[in-house]
Design goal:
Length: 498
C-alpha cells in the first residue's frame, strides 16, 4: 500500500508538514489503517460497480484521489515511440547485402534480429534457441517495443520517448567510408530531425532514448578524425540516454545492456526448466575458454591459450566463426565451472552472456569487461557472481589462472554458480510475441532503468533544482558505481586498472 500511516503524510486535518514531525500514537495508526482499509475496499467496489458507493462514502474525504488501486497499471511506464522515416531503420535492413562481402548478414537479421531458429542440440534449449548475432540489438529492442504493453500515442503522457534509429546498422554500412561527410550523413540527419520534432523541447531530449547495437567507441569520433562517427557527440544525442553493447567508462549518457545470447524463451516455465538444467549440469572442466587468439603474444589471451592448452582441467574451443557451432560452444560453457572472458577486439564479449546462460561463473581480467558496464543488470557486488584476476597479473607476472581458481572453496563456488543461474532471466531477451510472462528480461530491466533516469530529472526540474546526471571524463564510471544515496565519488578499488 502506498500510504505510510507512521509518517503521517496524510494525517487527518492538517495535511501540512506538521503531521510528519509528530509520530501519531500506535492506537491512532491502527484506527487510521482500518479506516484506510475500508476506504480502499469501498473505493475498489465503487470503481467496479458504478458510483453508488462513492455517494455513501466519498474516498476523497480521506485524501485518496491519487492512490493507485484499480488504476491504470501503465501509469509512470508509458513509452512514446517515434514512427521514423524508413531511411533511419527499415531501409538499412533492406540493404543487408551490403554489410559484408563474406558473410550473409541478411540471414542474421531474420526473426526480429534473433537470427535463424536452431534445431534442438545437446547443449541448446529444446525450443527458443536461435543463432543470434552480437550486433542485432536494434532489431531486438524495436520488435519488443512494438509489443510493449504500455505504448502511448500521446507523447505528453509518456514517461520516456523511444527513437528506433538503427545507429549500429548505419555504422556497419558507413564507418568504412573515408569521406567524413558521407560517413556521418545519416547520424547528422537523425540529430537534425529530432530537434525539429514538437516532442523535443518539452525536455530537450532528456526523456529520449535510443539503442545502438554496437560499442560506444563507434559513435564518439574525436575532432581530429579517426575511427567512428560523431553521433554521440552531437548536442541533441548527448541530452538523450543511449544504450549500447559496450559503454565507455568515460562518457556519462551511455549505458551498456546485455548482448543477446542464444535462448529467447516464450514462457516462465521454459526459463525455470533451463535454470534447473544448468543447476544439474555435470561440470567436467574446472575452466573453459571459447574464443580465438588475437595478435600479440604478451596479452592475457595468449596466456589463456597457453595455460589452458597445458592443463587437463581446461577446455578450449576456437571456432573460426561464431555462427558455425553454437551448440558446441554452449556445450563447452555448460561443462565448465569457470569461463574466462578476456578482452578481445574491445573490452566486452557476447560470450560473457553465453557463459551466464550456461550457468558458468565468468572470470574477468579487466573491470571494463563487465563491472563498469551493465550496472543495471549485474549485481554491484561482482564477487557474488564472478572472479576478477587482473590481466596485468596474468600477462606480466605469469599468474596461473588455474591456481587462482583452485583457491576458491567449493561452497563459495556453489554460491556463485547459483547467483549466475539466478541472473539468467535478467540478461536474456524473451520472445516478443509471448504473453503473460512474469519474469523480467534484459529489455524490461533496461526500460525500467531509462524511465527511472528520466523521472529523476523530471522531478528535479519540477522542484526547480539544477540537475546533472551525465558526467563525462576520467571519473565518469565512478558515478555509475555509486551506492544508492551516495553522492560523492572517491577512491575506488578499480583505480589501478582504469
Ligand atoms: C565528400 O562527399 C561529398 C558528397 O557526398 C562531396 O561534396 C565532398 O566533396 C567529398 N569530400 C571529399 C574530401 O572528397
Ligand atoms: C540539451 O539540454 C539542455 C538543458 O539541459 C538545453 O539547454 C539544450 O538546448 C539541449 N540541447 C538541444 C540540442 O536540445
Ligand atoms: C613473442 O613474439 C616475439 C616477437 O614477435 C618473438 O620474438 C617471441 O619469440 C615470441 N615469444 C613466444 C613465447 O612465442
Ligand atoms: C610461467 O609459469 C609457468 C609455471 O607456472 C612456467 O612453466 C612458465 O615457464 C612461466 N613462464 C614465464 C614466461 O615465466
Ligand atoms: C555536470 O557535472 C560535470 C562534472 O562536475 C561537469 O563537468 C559538467 O559541466 C556538468 N554539466 C552541466 C550541464 O552542468
Amino acid at each position: 500500500m502506498e500510504m505510510d500511516a507512521a509518517n503521517g503524510k496524510h494525517s487527518v486535518g492538517g495535511g501540512s508538514g506538521v503531521g510528519s514531525l509528530l509520530r501519531p500514537p500506535r492506537i491512532f495508526c491502527i484506527t487510521l489503517l482500518s479506516i484506510v482499509f475500508w476506504a480502499v475496499i469501498i473505493y475498489f467496489v465503487s470503481t467496479m460497480q458504478g458510483n453508488m458507493a462513492s455517494l455513501l462514502f466519498k474516498p476523497s474525504a480521506f485524501s485518496l484521489p491519487s492512490f493507485r488501486f484499480g488504476r491504470d497499471r501503465c501509469v509512470g511506464r508509458y513509452i512514446y515511440m517515434y514512427d521514423l522515416p524508413p531511411r533511419f531503420n527499415a531501409d538499412l535492413v533492406r540493404r543487408c547485402r551490403q554489410f559484408s562481402v563474406t558473410d550473409d548478414i541478411c540471414k542474421l537479421m531474420v526473426n526480429d534480429g534473433f537470427g535463424a531458429e536452431l534445431p534442438p542440440g545437446d547443449s541448446l534449449p529444446e525450443k527458443g534457441a536461435y543463432d543470434t548475432d552480437q550486433y542485432m540489438l536494434e532489431l531486438i529492442y524495436h520488435a519488443r517495443m512494438k509489443r510493449y504493453e504500455c505504448l502511448t500515442a500521446d507523447p505528453s503522457t509518456a514517461a520516456a520517448v523511444y527513437v528506433p534509429f538503427y545507429a549500429g546498422f548505419d555504422a556497419s554500412l558507413n564507418l568504412w567510408k573515408s569521406n567524413l561527410t558521407d560517413r556521418d550523413a545519416l547520424s547528422r540527419d537523425m540529430a537534425d530531425w529530432l530537434v525539429r520534432r514538437p516532442e523535443w523541447p518539452s525536455m530537450w531530449g532528456h526523456d529520449h532514448f535510443l539503442v545502438a547495437g554496437r560499442a560506444t567507441w563507434d559513435f564518439i569520433r574525436s575532432k581530429d578524425g579517426g575511427w567512428g562517427n560523431p553521433l554521440m557527440t552531437y548536442p541533441a544525442i548527448r541530452n538523450m540516454t543511449v544504450l549500447t553493447i559496450e559503454a565507455s567508462p568515460w562518457q556519462g549518457n551511455d549505458f551498456a545492456v546485455p548482448f543477446a545470447s542464444h535462448f529467447h524463451p516464450s514462457s516462465d516455465a521454459d526459463v525455470l526448466r533451463w535454470q534447473d538444467r544448468m543447476r544439474q549440469q555435470e561440470r567436467r572442466s574446472l575452466w573453459g575458454f571459447a574464443g580465438g587468439p588475437r595478435p600479440g603474444n604478451t596479452t592475457v589471451r595468449a596466456q589463456i591459450i597457453e595455460q589452458c592448452g597445458k592443463s587437463s582441467s581446461c577446455a578450449m574451443f576456437g571456432a573460426k566463426s561464431y555462427h558455425s557451432s553454437p551448440d558446441q560452444i554452449m556445450g563447452l560453457l555448460e561443462s565448465a565451472e569457470f569461463c574466462v572472458e578476456p578482452c578481445g577486439d574491445s573490452f566486452t564479449r557476447k560470450s560473457t552472456f553465453d557463459a551466464i546462460l550456461a550457468g558458468c561463473i565468468p572470470v574477468f581480467f579487466h573491470p571494463i569487461s563487465a563491472y563498469t558496464q551493465y550496472t543495471w543488470h549485474l549485481p554491484r557486488d561482482y564477487r557474488s557472481y564472478s572472479v576478477f584476476i587482473p590481466q596485468i597479473d596474468v600477462a606480466k607476472r605469469n599468474v596461473s589462472i588455474e591456481e587462482e581458481l583452485r583457491k576458491i572453496p567449493p561452497t563459495k563456488v556453489a554460491q556463485m554458480r547459483e547467483e549466475v543461474i539466478r541472473l539468467i532471466p535478467r540478461v536474456m531477451y524473451r520472445e516478443p510475441m509471448a504473453k503473460g510472462l512474469v519474469f523480467k528480461d534484459a529489455f524490461d530491466v533496461a526500460v525500467a532503468a531509462v524511465i527511472d533516469r528520466v523521472a529523476k530529472r523530471r522531478r528535479a526540474t519540477a522542484e526547480g533544482r539544477e540537475y546533472n546526471d551525465s558526467f563525462d571524463g576520467y571519473f565518469s564510471w565512478k558515478y555509475d558505481l555509486l551506492e544508492p544515496g551516495q553522492k560523492d565519488i572517491g577512491p575506488h578499488e578499480f583505480d589501478p586498472y582504469m
